[in-house]
Amino acid sequence: MKNQGVKFTKDTYVLAFAICYKLNSPESFKICNTLREEALIKGEVLSRRASCFAVALALNQNQVAKAMSIFSQIMNPDSIACTNLNIVIHIQSNMLETPMEILTNAAEGNVSRFVKRNMFSEEVLAKVREKVKDVPALVTKFDEIYGKLHISGQVSTYSLDALLCYTPRDKKFHMLPLNRKTISQRTLQPLSKSLLAE
């Protein structure tokens, strides 16, 4: 597309970054960064999904500073994937206070059952536990928080990869066939028959 001068759309960036993330090589990381920088130079706003793939790829390539930089530019980091990526960024940076704070706020927040709660991947929580295992006070606190999150249904069995690659269904396209009339209101016959008769 780039060689043929085809303009990239938001979906194209998501697809390109997702491919680079799945390839997970130094070369794909370089391609992802180049595409991202070119988009920012052109003044294009990258979607949260595209940025999440770029952050995850940077983390997989142990480029934590780059992952932090990309994450800081996400406009609305309130998605499940963003929350989990934020925790992984801090774990890989050896900053344990922030993940513990995020988890504590999620577990102890006095939130109504009608308000959307943060969900955490079991895989990400296992990484947190692995990181805090050498600090007895943090292990105890983490186990308590983990129990509360589990009871409130905020622990997902999906891996971080599954959360990133989840594609929500588009409701608009599923509603179109329902609005289409198939029976004539006047003759109560199928439309195809009544049109032929008239």
From TrEMBL:
A GO term for molecular function: RNA binding
Assigned GO CC terms: mitochondrion
GO biological process: mitochondrion organization; regulation of mRNA processing
Protein name as it appears in the record: PTCD2
Organism (species): Propithecus coquereli (Coquerel's sifaka)
